[in-house]
Amino acid sequence: MDDHILAAQLAAQAGDLLLRIRDQGGKEGDRQSNDLLLRLIAETRPDDAVLSEESVDDPVRLRRDRVWIIDPLDGTREYGEPPRDDWAVHVALTVDGHPVAGAVGLPAAGLVLHTGAPPPLAAPAPGPPRLAVSRTRPPACVDQLVTSLSATLVPMGSAGAKAMAVVRGQVDVYAHSGGQYEWDSCAPVAVAAATGLHVSRLDGTPLRYNQPDPYLPDLLICRPELADAVLDALRKE
């Protein structure tokens, strides 16, 4: 089985588990999904390292070329508020710091988007750019984009849900400046890039993963034809 299909299967199995145990709450969902993913990766790719939000960071990953970066439950708050579907499972494989395969499961929506069969780039929508933002904590960069691009705001939950909304053509831009970690963006970036979207830091520099400090504070995923305008807007004081 190739890495793309494995990532998709891992995200799907974790998603199925999370749906079955949703009534047990987010803390238990985090734990059980993490346990399942760690076990399955160990069984299928025993020589690879793992970086997970829900596990103690093992520095052995820094000596490995192949590292899986996972978020077993992205959007714990949203998961704990049924029937919301804006939460996700992230599974990505990096090689030498670059995402090469990944899957984002949206279990409550019945979807797994992955690099093995990325969806075609959606046709551009008429009107001003649509910007995915947090329902509760919009980052500072949102104001810049609204002012410069007359962007309209589309509130939604987890990072994975917002990123996949760009992939699915439901919004045009997901920009985040409020602080994240590698597991928040690695799988979404892999899928978005495979779809043909622009992915970068907010200053336009490439995203690098499996770094000694997994803190990766900002992220841009957007339609390719909007990338220059978005990056120009973000550079404005």
From TrEMBL:
It comes from the Bacteria. One of its GO terms (biological process) is sulfate assimilation. GO terms for molecular function: 3'(2'),5'-bisphosphate nucleotidase activity; metal ion binding. The keyword Metal-binding applies. Its cofactor is Mg(2+). This is 3'(2'),5'-bisphosphate nucleotidase CysQ. InterPro entries: CysQ/Inositol_MonoPase, Inositol_monophosphatase-like. The keyword Magnesium applies. Pfam families: Inositol_P (PF00459). CDD domains: CysQ. Mg(2+) binds at E53, D71, L73, D74, D184. Keywords: Magnesium, Metal-binding.
